[in-house]
Amino acid sequence: MSFSANDLLWLLLPLAAASGWLIARYDTGRKAARSLDLPSAYFKGLNFLLNEQPDKAIEIFIQVLEVNSDTVETHLALGNLFRRRGEVERAIRIHQNLIARPTLDREQRTQALLELGQDYFKAGLFDRAENLFLELAEVRAHSEQALRLLLSIYQQEKEWDKAIQTAQKLGRVSGKRMDDVIAQYHCEFAEQALAKKNIGAAREALRRALAVDSGCVRASILLGDLEAEEGRDRAAIQAWQRVEQQDAQYFGEVASRIAEAYRRLDDAQGLYRFFSEALQRHASVALVLTFADIIKERDGVKAAEKFVVEWLRRRPNVHGLHRLLELNIEQADTGVRNDLILLKGIIEELRQQHQGYACQQCGFKGRTLHWLCPGCSHWNTVKPVLEE
Ligand SMILES: [Zn+2]
Q: Closest Cα partner for 141 from 121, 118, 113, 166?
């Protein structure tokens, strides 16, 4: 076990404070003898810590606490330190011992309960953590923090009903808007309902998501998926098209879904018109590539190739080059084809570096779209990377 300089500082600061307190006590000449043990006990405890004997250190620190409750901060810091290091049982022991002291004032007790709740959460004892945080949410000075911790439990446990109620309360208490997060919870609920084939409940949850946050891209995507699943392709197209107004950065997510729905409807004219008009508004890579397929279906390989070459002249990029090679391979003789396939393999690797998703908060990168960032646990921060 090794402690960083920062960790040591945390432990030593209260010690310094305690020494100051001691001198003050000594000066006034009251109860000096009783308190004299304090620094030596701390050094002893610190020694055990440094010698990788944390349990002995805890014994010493707990003894010090028996004598004196001015050291509560140190115990809180120590418990916190153990929890951060993943030694949750030790953290629990320290915090439980602290709470058992009758001398704690109300604020100190609440603080210790908050810490203990986080220990339970980290240990996976969600019921105990939930009970503590529910109680603390009623204490006004700590309700925001308690509600946030409750939210992490409900997210972890996928209890979306409770998450929605808690986020609404948190919004009122903190004065910060939680609408986009609440909409995500409704979407999570909808996905759960969809998995159970409960279409009615899923539809209602998506309606609520869009009611609380009209910019919720995920709700539009899911609603389109639901409509398509039900064989209502016109309604599906309508839902997916909404993504363009909500956040054009995500439009690529639905481009191929929209194209497939038009094809199922056997509406080649509608398909062509929609994409040629959409391209006037944004020439994003996904749209251009989808349109290249549409041209190929309608007017043949040569026409598609011409379209891609024109686009590449205006905006040179690996995705266009990749598609151009694919179109060329289709038309090439055997000799040239092998060279083109080799070239395509190289471009493929380059292309992968320009694909995927990134979190705008913490920089997390991934191949799939996460609505809740696995890196920093923020909602709505992962976006498709710039495709150029
Ligand atoms: Zn992140």
A: 113
- How close is the Cα of 356 to the center of ligand 1, in Å? 14
Range among 33-37, 50-54, 221-225, 341-345 rated most confident = 221-225
Q: How far apart are CA 190 and CA 178, in angstroms?
A: 18
**Interval between CA 377 and ligand 1 midpoint (Å):** 6
Neighbours of 219 (CB within 10 A): 28
Q: What pLDDT, on a 0 to 100 scale, did the predictor assign at position 159?
A: 96
- The Å distance, Cα 33 to ligand 1 centre, comes to 54
Gap between the Cα atoms of 110 and 103, Å rounded: 13
Torsion of CA 8, 9, 10, 15, to 10 degrees: 100
- Quote the ligand 1 centre to 380 CA distance (angstroms): 9
Give the per-residue SS3 of 13-59: HHHHHHHHHHHHHHHHCCCHHHHCHHHHHHHHHHHHHHCCCHHHHHH
Amino acid at 153: I
Q: Which two tokens stand for residue 267?
A: 């509406």
CA-to-CA distance for 291 and 297, rounded, in angstroms? 10
358 Cα–ligand 1 center, Å? 8
363 Cα to the center of ligand 1, angstroms: 6
pTM for this entry? 0.79
Distant-in-sequence, close-in-space partners of 201: CB < 8 Å, separation ≥ 6:
189, 190, 193
Task: Compute, in angstroms, the gap from residue 30 CA to the centroid of ligand 1.
Answer: 55
